[in-house]
Amino acid sequence: MARSWVVLAVVAACTPAAPARPAAPASVLAALEARPDLSGVPLGRDHARATIVVVFASWCPHCHDELDVLAELRQAHPAMRVVGLNYEGHEDYDGRGSSDAVRHYVADHAPWLRVVPCDEACFAMIGRPTLIPTTFVYDQAGALVETFDRRERPQPTRDELVALLHRLGA
After folding, report:
1. pLDDT value at position 23?
2. Are 170 and 49 in contact (CB under 8 A)?
3. Spatial separation of the C-alpha atoms in residues 106 and 88, rounded to whole Å
4. Does the pLDDT at position 94 exceed 60?
5. What SS3 class is residue 50?
6. Whole-angstrom Cα distance, residue 158 to residue 74?
7. Which structural domain range is residue 156 located in?
8. Cα separation, 157 vs 155, whole angstroms
């Protein structure tokens, strides 16, 4: 009686390598800094002692109030940077805004504000805040220090932000 043998050999060197994944950013802020603003220019790294990122929409009165406070603070705290994130889902909500509306609002009311359009990947990265404005404060190293998410707490007062900026040396 003859025996049959089947030998199966797997050679790792012959299998194709998995596609390389891009390295994860050190922080959400680092990922945002790689994204382009409304003009198509990458936001870029800044050496500010504090970066405040506010998710806003052009039609939102609470956002207008928050941006007014931030405009005032940036005059008194030049070591602070403010970045606006405009998520299309919030902007276009119920037909209230558009990319043109964002450009007009910023040009007329906040020409100092760098705005980064926020797509689905960006929105997921920042935690999908459902209420606007939502404000994130990062330190100089890019670490998240505070989140003012209206689902959990009110927007920061001017005094709260001033105290936080002093704590960060901005």
Report:
1. 39
2. yes
3. 15
4. yes
5. strand
6. 11
7. 57-170
8. 7
H or E element that contains 30:
helix 28-33
Quick check: is 77 in a domain? yes
15: its two tokens: 């299998």
Looking up tokens 């705290």 gives: 77
CA 170 – CA 168 distance, rounded (Å): 6
CATH number, domain of 64, equals 3.40.30.10
Give me the half-sphere count of Cα atoms (radius 13 Å) on the Cβ side of residue 108. Answer: 8
Residue 137 belongs to some domain of the structure: yes
For the chain, state the CA radius of gyration: 22
Q: Which two tokens stand for residue 80?
A: 């602070």
CA atoms of 163 and 161, how far apart (whole Å): 5
Mean pLDDT confidence for 37-63: 93
Is residue 13 predicted with pLDDT exceeding 70? no
**Res 150: pLDDT:** 87
Phi, psi at 123, each rounded to 5°: -60, -40
| Assigned domain for 156 exists | yes
